[in-house]
Amino acid sequence: MRALVYNGPKDVSVVDVPDAEIEAPTDAVVKITTTNICGSDLHMYEGRTDVEQGKVLGHENMGVVEEVGPGVTRLKKGDRVSLPFNIACGHCRNCTQGKTAFCLEVNPGSAGGAYGYADMGPYSGGQAEYLRVPFADFNALRLPGGTEHENDFTMLSDIFPTGWHGTRLAGLQPGESVAIMGAGPVGLMAALSARIQGADQIYVVDMQPDRLRLAEQVGATPVDFSKGSAEEQIMEATKGVGVDRGVEAVGWQAHDHSGDEHPAGTLDTLVEVVRATGGIGVVGVFPPADPNGPDPDMQEGRLRFPFGQFFFKGQSMGTGQCNTKAYNRQLRDLIIAGKADPGFIVSHELSLEDAASGYEHFDNREDGWTKVLLHP
Ligand SMILES: NC(=O)c1ccc[n+]([C@@H]2O[C@H](COP(=O)([O-])OP(=O)(O)OC[C@H]3O[C@@H](n4cnc5c(N)ncnc54)[C@H](O)[C@@H]3O)[C@@H](O)[C@H]2O)c1
Ligand SMILES: [Zn+2]
Ligand SMILES: [Zn+2]
């Protein structure tokens, strides 16, 4: 089958690889209809992880069940499914508590497994014609058959739940205000989630005009940090009060308007603008180490952010990968009911064969390249 593999920094290509197969009785093989390129893939693409050469990338996958193992009882050939980016066993301590992003079984020695990702286990990704899905009954979310809502449903594997998770980690309540750092796909999904949850004011910070326009489209107030500090703009807009909640949707490769990286830049802002006793949800990725990165602290996974001010204000913070299964069923049903349209961020739909150029444009954050879908 054809699949996109990682060759080295800024070098991916679509090549022939062995077919995805049933390896355990609880596996299914899914024929991919849509698989997305994610901002998380760019950390690997840019050579900022230890992902191995030849790995098939792709963790935002949906498609149609092609084959099931003898231990699969719920799913059957022909079912249309969304696959959470987390691979989870369904029976370990964390899985039984709904924390499927931290499954203790699928990636021994670590907590959490995923398709096609550095340090997340031996699993191949779905930027390919077919994907092996472990513990398929537990992991696959069934969708209505056909092709309706494809561009909305494809956001259920990761970024719509992840944006939602950011707002839940922050503790957002109806009628509260929230500042979201980053207007990438995850930040935009956090803005959509905040709107659905009844936030009264949503500020979205970025410097990409096309992305800020999309934030405005979901009812958020755009804050362009290339035109002055985000702190000052948000404090002025809130008449010095600040916001109730903050969501970090950038990660450690956050940069200033000249492009220099400041891993703690977004948390500096959020600790400043979130009111005393407010909450901050961090879904942007911060790695345990970034040995080749420019920041000496982050090389050891240490972040210099104003912890004293954070403590003094009695703020709280929630972090981590999204437990996709905690939300994807309800978010699917909001899409079916016409109450959520996460597909509004899709900017490009490419064939799998054109995936390498999709990576290049998306990585350059070229104007208008917001979210790239691949159709194998
Ligand atoms: N926790 C999870 O489960 C999970 C899931 C998916 C993605 N992620 C992570 O979420 C982050 C965002 O993902 P994405 O797909 O939206 O990525 P992206 O790279 O497309 O978007 C990031 C955006 O942040 C902006 N940005 C950079 N520095 C900034 C700053 N200082 N202030 C404000 N904005 C800034 C960029 O201009 C860009 O638009 C990544 O770190 C990704 O790995 C986490
Ligand atoms: Zn993703
Ligand atoms: Zn588990």
What does this structure look like?
Keywords: Metal-binding, NAD, Oxidoreductase, Zinc. Its cofactor is Zn(2+). Pfam families: ADH_N (PF08240), ADH_zinc_N (PF00107). It contains 13 helices and 17 strands. It is α/β, with parallel strands linked by helices. The protein has 2 domains: 2-158 and 323-375, Alpha-Beta Complex (Quinone Oxidoreductase, Chain A, domain 1); 163-319, NAD(P)-binding Rossmann-like Domain (Rossmann fold). The strands form 4 sheets. Strands 3, 4, 5, 8, 9, 16 and 17 form a 7-stranded mixed β-sheet that branches. Strands 12-11-10-13-14-15 form a 6-stranded parallel β-sheet, sandwiched between helices. Strands 1-2 form a two-stranded antiparallel ribbon. Helix 13 (355-363) links the parallel strand 16 and strand 17. Helix 5 packs across helix 6 and helix 8 packs parallel to helix 9. The longest helix has 12 residues, at 159-170. The mean pLDDT is 97. The structure holds nicotinamide-adenine-dinucleotide and zinc ion (ZN) (2 copies).
Fill in the keyword field for this structure.
single chain; 376 residues; alpha/beta; Quinone Oxidoreductase, Chain A, domain 1; Rossmann fold; 2 domains; seven-stranded mixed β-sheet; six-stranded parallel β-sheet; 13 helices; 24% strand; binds nicotinamide-adenine-dinucleotide; binds zinc ion; oxidoreductase; zinc ion binding
